[in-house]
Specification:
- The strands form six sheets. Strands 18-17-14-15-16-13-19 form a seven-stranded antiparallel beta sheet. Strands 7-2-1-11-21 form a five-stranded parallel beta sheet, covered by helices on one side.
- The protein is of the alpha+beta class.
Length: 423
């Protein structure tokens, strides 16, 4: 009988467990090295604990929602698209449901059920998991992977260090977001140590600090059905309608998280957010609406005239920013002042000061450069036997299940390719 291919998977997150499953399902002997006490630690908190597994859409739509290097992912998505991911879970007993925007969740609403499904499938295929264990070094000879040096951490059954020989290693260590789950950038170190280039990592899908102080005054206020634009100089990088939130440090919420994907990690000098508070109304329609409101309270002070137009918490801020005297009677508000108010409501400017940190970021932008990875196999172009999967690679997407789909697809392709190498 042919000797079984032996594969080490570094990291028991989404990409790692899918890679291990795919490799074992193809007949390989697989061992996962996981420094936490359980697999899927980050999956437990994904989608606020509900785990947005994927997005129920075709490959073209998946690619459209990838921000960094979408073309690189075509082969991975073709090997395992969102429908195949859904079929995998359904076939293995996990009921699913599709919600707004094509977001797919376990029917139970529990991310733990996703992890249970994988644990069962890995056990069926005799995948060995070394918990509380970390890889210290990847060993290569003459451009070929040979082994990994591992260390048993406190809390594990064993102590000390050991060298594990294998035919291939899959680096699926994640990025740096949510470091408390074990994502501490180990994969970037392994990549550099084995001769690979790594694009600088930045937090993404993350709230934003702002220069203006008024967001702090609005802390806790959520705005729905507003339009948020991200402008770099004269260029519109992002524009979308939806929901956003004011916080003690700046802004957050779905629109802001999405917009952060298009922001550089540093040098935000030419950037600004523009919020259209009334996107359903043209300036002319908004003018007519304001005139109608004013006519119904002619003797009211300006500061008391916006109750039908804006949330109560927002009124003092808009009043101040408009430059109109708060105590001015509305019948005395000039046409020019009204035009300025309309411009403000249709174009409230907020200046980003910086992204929040990795501990608040849903994902990491940056990672191992895709030019050094074969997109058809996920194998390194520099070292035979080294494969990459998931967030450690320089690919990322917006929210909606797309980032987990990247993890599943790249993990699956890496696992299959490592188990059945063609070169």
């Amino acid at each position: 009988m042919d000797k079984k291919v032996k594969i080490v998977v570094i990291g028991g997150g989404a990409a790692g467990i899918m890679a291990a499953y795919a490799a074992a399902d193809s007949g390989a002997e697989v061992i996962i090295i996981e420094k936490n006490e359980k697999i899927g630690k980050k999956l437990y908190i994904t989608g606020k604990g509900r785990c947005n597994i994927t997005n129920n859409s075709d490959i073209q739509n998946l690619l459209l929602h990838v921000v960094s290097n979408p073309k690189f992912l075509y082969s991975a998505f073709s090997a395992l698209d969102s429908h195949k991911v859904m079929d995998f879970f359904k076939k293995n007993g996990l009921k699913l449901k599709t919600e707004r925007g094509g977001r797919v969740f376990p029917f139970s609403g529990k991310s733990s059920d996703v992890i249970k499904t994988f644990k069962n499938e890995l056990e069926k295929r005799n995948v060995q998991v070394c918990y509380n264990t970390e890889v210290q070094k990847i060993n290569i000879e003459n451009g070929i992977f040979k082994s990994v040096d591992i260390k048993y951490l406190n809390g594990g059954r064993r102590k000390g260090t050991e060298t594990v020989k294998a035919d291939a290693v899959i680096i699926a260590t994640g990025g740096i977001s949510y470091p408390s789950t074990g994502s501490t950038g180990d994969g970037y170190r392994f990549a550099r140590d084995t001769g690979h280039s790594v694009k600088q990592a930045f937090p993404s899908l993350v709230p934003v600090n702002t220069k203006e102080s008024f967001p702090k005054e609005l802390q806790g206020l959520s705005l729905r059905n507003v339009e948020l634009s991200l402008i770099d100089g004269q260029k519109v990088l992002y524009k979308e309608m939806g929901e956003m939130l004011f916080t003690h440090f700046g802004i957050s919420g779905p629109l802001v998280l999405h917009a952060s994907c298009y922001m550089p990690g540093e040098n935000l000098d030419n950037m600004k957010f523009i919020i259209d508070l009334k996107p359903a109304l043209t300036k002319q329609q908004l003018n007519e609406r304001i005139l109608r409101d004013f006519s119904e309270c002619k003797n009211s002070q300006f500061k008391n005239s916006l109750g039908r137009l804006l949330p109560a918490k927002l009124i003092p801020v808009i009043t101040t920013l408009s430059g109109i005297e708060p105590e001015k009677k509305v019948h005395s508000v000039t046409k020019q002042e009204r035009a300025g108010l309309i411009d403000l409501l249709k174009g409230l400017v907020i200046t980003p000061e910086g992204l929040r940190g990795f501990n608040e970021a849903i994902i990491t932008r940056g990672g191992v450069t895709v030019k050094e990875i074969n997109p058809a196999t996920m194998q390194s172009k520099k070292v035979k036997g080294i494969y990459f999967a998931g967030e450690v690679i320089d690919t990322d997407a917006v929210t909606g299940g797309y980032n987990l789909q990247i993890a599943w697809s790249t993990g699956y392709l890496a696992g299959k390719s490592a188990a059945c190498p063609k070169d």
